Amino acid sequence: MLRDDVKIAHYGSKSFYDLIGDINRYEKIFIHFLSDQLCDFVNRNSESHAKFFWIFWGADFYTPLEFFAAEIFDEDSMTYYRRHGTFASTNNRLVDALKRAKRIFIQPFIYQRRVERRRKAIDRINYFLHYNPFDFEVVKKFFPTNAAFHYFFYYEFDYASPPDTSSEAVKDFRQRFSLRAPLIIQLGNSASLSNNHLGALKALSRFANEDFQIVCPLSYGDRKYAQYVIEIGSKLFGDKFIPVTTYLPKEDYLSLLQCIDIGVMNHRRSEGGANTVMLLAMGKKVFMPDENALNKFLNSNSIHIYSPRNFTKQSFAEFSMLLSSEQKSSNQSRVAAIFSPQRAEELMIKVENLK
């Protein structure tokens, strides 16, 4: 529910500037998603005495995509990106020639300008607010900054009390999505190429003759890419591959997650964090690349998590072995403690008192 003292205005509109007024009257400015537009906003107001707080999400850092492609795409995703990206062939000689010219002579300058605007804005940021210091290390790797890291997160889920596996809602979802196999795998969280679905599907294809199903959330992101993932998933696994292409309300989605046995999050960057943490809170086994900053954070907190690189070495019996009761209990208690409502409130107060 929106508070009465919260005002909303579309960025860049007259009502926005009327509402904001003189920027110098503010002591603190919070940036919730550091888009290109908000980079420009920070840069235009760089001389202000206000402190800028960047609440990190992930996608607001990895842009422009071309600058980070080698960092976040595996080999299969990079191949798709080159074939189907902005400059993919159209089979029209004139159009392709113009696109090549743009890629060679114009686009590098556009990308470089966007990168420099982002570099300047991040250099002006005073505080980096996030729960994962390993993401801050990635930011500093690309854009040196004197910003101070402070722990922060929004409390959204009760990780200490995930939905009951025996609930009628979970049973309904099993029936709704025809989830009848003894092992249900979730692949990724969105129709974003950085999920690296294609590489994961290839790795899992070793087990194609085994009895399992793959649930693949593709309800938001790139529709063209989503359709390609569905095509490849169906080709490799037939009706074992179950794409979820419609948006589900939060409570329904939580019921769907409770149907999962193993989560395969093949992202190389922090992404799908709520999905991952909720699966862990539900006692599920999760695979995530070692280089992923979220993996590093979870490992640093002694949370049991596994690397997809094991797919090429493990038997299906090893892959499908679920967490022990001790591992489940340990993961659940650690996740609940890290992301508790009490801790969220404490961190909010600390941020409020920062000068």
Description of the molecule:
With 355 residues, this protein is of the alpha/beta class. It folds into 2 domains: 1-155 and 340-355, no CATH class; 168-338, Glycogen Phosphorylase B (Rossmann fold, 3-Layer(aba) Sandwich), CATH 3.40.50.2000. 46% of the residues lie in helices and 10% in strands. The chain contains 15 helices and 9 strands. It has helices at residues 14-20, 36-44, 65-72, 75-84, 93-124, 133-142, 168-176, 197-204, 223-237, 250-258, 273-281, 293-300, 316-319, 325-338, 341-352, and strands at 28-31, 51-55, 127-129, 148-150, 184-187, 213-217, 241-244, 262-264, 285-287. The strands form 2 sheets. The protein has a 5-stranded parallel sheet with strand order 7-6-5-8-9. Strands 1-2-3-4 form a 4-stranded parallel sheet, with no helix packed on it. Strand 3, helix 6 (133-142) and strand 4 (148-150) form a beta-alpha-beta unit. The chain starts with 13 loop residues before the first helix and ends with a helix.
